[in-house]
Automatic annotation (TrEMBL):
<feature type="site" description="Important for catalysis">
    <location>
        <position position="191"/>
    </location>
</feature>
<feature type="binding site">
    <location>
        <begin position="281"/>
        <end position="293"/>
    </location>
    <ligand>
        <name>NAD(+)</name>
    </ligand>
</feature>
<comment type="pathway">
    <text>Amino-acid biosynthesis; L-leucine biosynthesis; L-leucine from 3-methyl-2-oxobutanoate: step 3/4.</text>
</comment>
<feature type="domain" description="Isopropylmalate dehydrogenase-like">
    <location>
        <begin position="4"/>
        <end position="352"/>
    </location>
</feature>
<keyword id="KW-0028">Amino-acid biosynthesis</keyword>
<comment type="function">
    <text>Catalyzes the oxidation of 3-carboxy-2-hydroxy-4-methylpentanoate (3-isopropylmalate) to 3-carboxy-4-methyl-2-oxopentanoate. The product decarboxylates to 4-methyl-2 oxopentanoate.</text>
</comment>
<dbReference type="GO" id="GO:0003862">
    <property type="term" value="F:3-isopropylmalate dehydrogenase activity"/>
</dbReference>
<keyword id="KW-0963">Cytoplasm</keyword>
<dbReference type="InterPro" id="IPR004429">
    <property type="entry name" value="Isopropylmalate_DH"/>
</dbReference>
<feature type="binding site">
    <location>
        <position position="106"/>
    </location>
    <ligand>
        <name>substrate</name>
    </ligand>
</feature>
<feature type="binding site">
    <location>
        <position position="223"/>
    </location>
    <ligand>
        <name>substrate</name>
    </ligand>
</feature>
<keyword id="KW-0460">Magnesium</keyword>
<keyword id="KW-0479">Metal-binding</keyword>
<dbReference type="InterPro" id="IPR019818">
    <property type="entry name" value="IsoCit/isopropylmalate_DH_CS"/>
</dbReference>
<feature type="binding site">
    <location>
        <position position="251"/>
    </location>
    <ligand>
        <name>Mg(2+)</name>
    </ligand>
</feature>
<keyword id="KW-0432">Leucine biosynthesis</keyword>
<keyword id="KW-0520">NAD</keyword>
Length: 356
């Protein structure tokens, strides 16, 4: 098969981790007879430096013309004092909106080989956990109207949180569909005891649930969910939630696994198109030192093969290679524990290529 991939290396550790993922994709292409065409796209701080804005229209167009986007990470202290519209993060929000990527899948999995990195007690870990956070990604508080004004000499800031039923329905449908491919349970997280947007969320999710009698649905308030994630993460299969709650809970869930450097993510629209990126950030403190863990990005590339290209066999191959490398004891600094072999970012790439 022939596929066009837009590649956004971004800032910080972005370029080094994406390079390792590209090596893996090239190896897969060679092994299975595919052709991947890559186009570099600027976004984030590097785009601000080169063009003055975090995402140009041309960059967005290039992404739209491709079959999928592979993204490293954006942001860094260099651009922290920029006005809101000229921050690297704005590029990320704009590309999500521009590509209509309303469904964000963030798996939080405890890797058996990495139990030592999990901060939870052994009796809580049990035989591990594997959940999928489904975050609504193009609505709610992050895309509502906002302004800062002065009223009677007092500064006042306003952010608006809006959802319409269609935005809720389409992410709910995706959530239930994904639950069917997993363990048939959806936990819908909201703040329906306070917020109107959450009451609508709950109502629409329950309507959608009627079409999925085989999937168990439970409602959970977001504060309780934050607690349950550390008290008993095993109870979760799919967590379905709105934009801000999903932002916060997915960071918590990834930390609970102890290996954020291992967690991939996919952002999807209604078609096969998707944007794939690690769940972690640009880690400016270790950028350019060849120390970062490339596994989350390589697993993101594997999700791209699976979800956008229907290349399940190829994706399985990549996932297996990573498992083998972990079993052999290769570890980057973030997941290092006694008795294992510390490797660099590119050495981790070498080790994974070896297994393919
Ligand atoms: C994330 C990030 C972004 C978000 C920021 C960088 C805008 O935290 O992908 O979770 O809040 O969506
Ligand atoms: Mg976040």
């Amino acid at each position: 098969m022939e596929k066009k991939i837009a590649v956004i290396k971004g800032d910080g550790i972005g370029p080094e981790i994406v390079d390792q993922a590209l090596r893996v994709l090239n190896k897969i292409a060679e092994k299975y007879g595919h052709t991947f065409h890559y186009t570099d796209v600027l976004m984030g701080g590097v785009s601000i430096d080169a063009t003055g804005v975090p995402l140009t229209n041309e960059a967005l167009e290039t992404a739209k013309q491709s079959d999928a986007v592979l993204l490293g990470a954006v942001g860094g202290p260099k651009w922290d004092n920029q006005p809101a519209n000229l921050r690297p993060e704005k590029g990320l929000l704009a590309i999500r909106k521009g590509l209509n990527l309303f469904a964000n899948l963030r798996p939080a999995v405890l890797y058996e080989e990495l139990n030592a990195a999990c901060p939870l007690r052994e009796d809580i870990i049990g035989d591990g956990f594997d959940m999928m956070i489904m975050r609504e990604l193009t609505g709610g508080l992050y895309f509502g109207e906002r302004k800062t004004i002065e009223e009677n000499g007092v500064q006042k800031a306003i952010d608006t949180l809006t959802y319409d039923e269609n935005e809720i329905r389409r992410i709910a449908i995706k959530g239930f569909d994904i639950a069917r491919k997993r363990r048939n349970k959806v936990t819908s997280v909201d703040k329906a005891n306070v917020l109107d947007s959450s009451r609508l969320w709950r109502k629409v999710v329950h309507e959608v649930a009627k079409d999925y009698p085989d999937v168990e649905l439970e409602d959970m308030l977001v504060d309780n969910c934050a607690m349950q994630l550390v008290r008993d993460p095993k109870q979760f299969d799919v967590i379905l939630t709105e934009n801000m709650f999903g932002d916060i809970l997915s960071d918590e869930a990834s930390m609970v696994t102890g290996s954020i450097g291992m967690l991939a993510s996919a952002s999807l629209n209604e078609t096969k198109f998707g944007m794939y990126e690690p769940s972690h950030g640009s880690a400016p403190d270790i950028a350019g030192q060849n120390k970062a863990n490339p596994i989350a990005t390589i697993l993101s590339a594997s999700m791209m093969l699976r979800y956008s290209f229907d290349m399940d066999k190829e994706a399985d191959d990549v996932d297996q290679a990573i498992k083998k490398v972990l079993q052999k004891g290769y570890r980057t600094g973030d997941i290092m524990s006694e008795g294992n072999t510390l490797v660099t970012c590119s050495e981790m790439g070498d080790a994974i290529l070896q297994e393919l």
